[in-house]
Amino acid sequence: MYQTEDNMPKGWVRPVAKPTRESLKARVAELRAELAEAEARLREMEEGARLEALVKIKNLIRAFELTPADLGLVPAPKRRGRPRKAAP
Fold first, then answer.
1. Which tens digits make up the pLDDT trace of 4-48?
2. Is the pLDDT of residue 67 over 90?
3. Gap between the Cα atoms of 61 and 55, Å rounded
4. Rounded mean pLDDT, 65-77
5. What is the C-alpha to C-alpha distance for residues 41 and 48, in angstroms, rounded to an integer?
6. CA dist., res. 26 & res. 45, Å (int)
7. 78, 58, 80: which is closest to 68 by C-alpha?
8. Cα–Cα separations (whole angstroms), residue 86 to 23, 79, 80, 83
């Protein structure tokens, strides 16, 4: 980024100490804790939204008296693999 005269510091600027390895590790630990907390809240929000959507879908299915066939759903096969041989 280019330095312009507008953002150049005027006068004496106090020197800032370089962060130490320990302070950087502490900062990383703090940020990881914040991230874990945020991810937990996100999972709760997603679960709530998922449950709310399922309730809405079930209510619409009941309201319009839809069947799985109306929704284009086919029943799952009872058995996977090769069909049984017919008796001779």
1. 666 776 787 788 889 999 999 999 999 999 999 999 999 999 999
2. no
3. 10
4. 82
5. 11
6. 29
7. 58
8. 75, 16, 17, 9
